[in-house]
Amino acid sequence: MKFKNMEDALKYVQKDILREIDRICTKHGLRYYLAYGTLIGAIRHGGFIPWDDDIDIMMPYDDMIRFAQLCKTELDPKFFYQSPETEEEYRLTINRVRRNDSVLS
Known about the structure:
This protein is an alpha+beta fold.
């Protein structure tokens, strides 16, 4: 797919990831909420804050644990779930869903 610029490509990947998270959560009745810059962007900008470069969501703890388990079998193969439990070298306290063909720098 061709994009005008890197910002458009980034937004496409972000939406793709969010659609996958929503698919799994909807299928299994898990709750999640937009948060921080993602929520502000949705309300104030009708989409993304132009300078924001990530998607922020929150889940109740029990739903997050269930989501992590479901990712082992439900997550489309083009994505991966990243957490301290899935990667020994992962040092962040937040969990992520990422696309295999994207780069985090």
